Amino acid sequence: MAKKPQFMHFLGCIIPHRYPSIESAVKLVFEDLGMELLDMEGASCCPAPGVFGSFDRVTWASVSARNLTIAEAAGVPITTGCNGCFASLWDANYELKHDKELRKSVNENLAEIGREFKGTIEVTHYVDALYSTAGLEKIKKHVVRPLKGVRMALHPGCHWMRPKAIKKKDDSENPHIFRELCEVSGAEYVPYRDELICCGAGGAVRTADVKVALEFTKQKFESILEAGGADIIVTPCPFCELQLDLGQVEIQKHFGDEFNFDIMHVVELLALAFGHEPEEFGLDTHLQYAMRKNQPNWERLGIKTEG
To answer: Residue 103 and residue 44: Cα distance in Å, rounded?
Structure first.
């Protein structure tokens, strides 16, 4: 019997603290597809690349490299469901393999805790693992509840594909991999003008001025409505999910505009299409429902549950 593809599972911060439903969903989806996620014991924050790395490149790379050495010791590639975590780990892995001086400085830091970055593993995103390792044909075979009639807008986010010159994951100006993966669910893809702009939260904008961050989010929502509207917005990033989910509540508070999109991570979308119930992996705990005291209307999405 062929060995299951294995991945060290880097959870990051947002998934376990804000969206444990993503962790539950990805475990269900990967298990269904015959892929194994290994707990990454001892992992720390990635840390955030755009903020932390801007202040101290060596310290940022040292913290990220320590995480990489955990996977190196096991000889298993890393996968993560967060665009920011992916960017930090992938970028550090790339830079340390190509910058001898940075690698020397980082390994001097790591030597103090008995570790060494060797550059022997790769970093992947859930999207990569699903699209390239499992493959669309295999994923299609596990879709038992196609989401026919559900209109779906996509938000790929910024850091998974960019900078495209070195990541080469997809064409960041005209991406198709994430879209094809989401379309396997059976939902109808709704293209809209501002699909590729930031959700508003990145680069610590949400921390510095939440109202400015929400202006980006509001613009995306309005652009989706101009394209005919959508029932759900799907993203591969929990921080983007937070901005789009909680952002609907905050936009109503700051601007008075009301939007009613269900926000899902791509693995939550696939878990639904694979026949798992929303309550099975906690999709009903998303912030917009909790804060509005309004349970998700699965009937509106055509999803019949056992509850």
So the answer is: 20
